[in-house]
Design brief:
Helices cover 44% and strands 6% of the residues. The protein has 322 residues and is mainly α. Among the domains are: 80-123, no CATH class; 138-317, Muramoyl-pentapeptide Carboxypeptidase, domain 2, CATH 3.30.1380.10. The chain has a 4-stranded antiparallel β-sheet with strand order 3-4-6-5. A two-stranded parallel sheet has the order 1-2. Bound molecules: zinc ion.
């Protein structure tokens, strides 16, 4: 019995020695500056430190992102979606033209608030270049079409004379074929409503437009381009445009009952207000309440409904890739 007690006592002592020597090895894992007291609390700063370091980093990043988002929007630009993603979005537009791809990217970067669809529309028009830019100016493909577009980027051939006119016809009070018929119908219906509308300028030859433009340019070098077309770029050369009752911005035609009537009814006869208010930056012309363009009843209705210019209509629906 005594012997057994002795063995037990020896085993107990041995276990105490083993346990305490185990504790004695733990300081190897402690930080260099920690004491070797065996107090577990010395691990806490290290553990906390690791966690804290991570969470501080995360928090810092989040805070930076948040503050950039709300107080410094300009700094977001470098983190905009990568170009590849932008590319894809342009390509999904129905009126995307592969040959304008680089122009879409450039225009979008210069106008980050525009939607991708608008970017494609405006670049298709040519608005990423100044009006009359030689780099992108082109001749109309079908000057005989009732939907023909002549604007600050697209011009009619100097030799173009619409059907029904002779080369010598310079400045007349009439329109071409179908356009004149529809105008007559409109005038007679307007008359029934007590409204008097008359063409004061219809078809204009290239040569006459050159005279008209040069006169304006001489007297008003800075402003002429905002209300007078350069030769070849005038809608009047198509024989499809009419200046009604006046052609002066000081006449106050936009406040007349004739203008109100036209605004409500002209599309039913195939005419549209070609240079509306608010679209000056697209058309390149000041608001011209007197200038009405024939494009056919169906398309005029569409444009009236969607409130877009003929320039936008071409860019969206009549685009052609080369
Ligand atoms: Zn006009």
């Amino acid at each position: 019995m005594k012997k057994q007690l002795f063995i037990l006592a020896v085993l107990s002592m041995l276990s105490i020695i083993i346990l305490s020597s185990g504790c004695g090895h733990q300081p190897d894992y402690l930080p260099e500056n920690s004491d070797s007291s065996g107090d577990l609390s010395v691990f806490e700063p290290k553990q906390r430190g690791e966690t804290t370091e991570k969470s501080e980093t995360t928090e810092t990043r989040e805070t930076t992102e948040k503050s950039a988002e709300f107080t410094e929007p300009a700094r977001l630009m470098p983190t905009e979606p990568p170009v590849k993603q932008e590319d894809f979005r342009f390509m999904t537009a129905g009126h995307y033209k592969p040959e304008y791809h680089e122009r879409y990217i450039k225009y979008s970067e210069a106008n980050p608030r525009l939607s991708h669809l608008d970017v494609v529309t405006y670049v298709n028009i040519g608005l990423d270049f100044p009006f009359y830019s030689e780099e992108i100016k082109k001749q109309v493909e079908d000057p005989h079409s009732y939907l023909v577009l002549s604007n600050k980027y697209i011009y009619l051939p100097e030799s173009f004379v619409p059907e029904g006119y002779a080369k010598t016809d310079g400045r007349v009070l009439s329109l071409r074929g179908e356009a004149q018929k529809q105008f007559d119908k409109m005038r007679s219906d307007a008359e029934k409503d007590g409204i008097s509308i008359n063409i004061i300028s219809g078809y204009r030859s290239y040569a006459i437009q050159r005279e008209v433009y040069n006169n304006y340019k001489r007297n008003d070098p800075a402003g002429a381009d905002t209300y007078s077309a350069r030769p070849g770029h005038s809608e009047h050369q198509t024989g499809l445009s009419a200046d009604i009752n006046t052609a002066s911005s000081t006449a106050g035609f936009e406040n007349s009952k004739e203008y109100t009537w036209l605004n409500e009814n002209a599309h039913n006869y195939g005419f549209i207000l070609r240079y509306p208010k608010g679209k000056e930056w697209i058309t390149g012309y000041i608001f011209e309440p007197w200038h009405w363009r024939y494009i056919g009843v169906e398309t005029a209705g569409k444009l009236k409904e969607s409130d877009i210019t003929l320039d936008e209509y071409h860019a969206i629906y009549l685009h052609k890739s080369h």
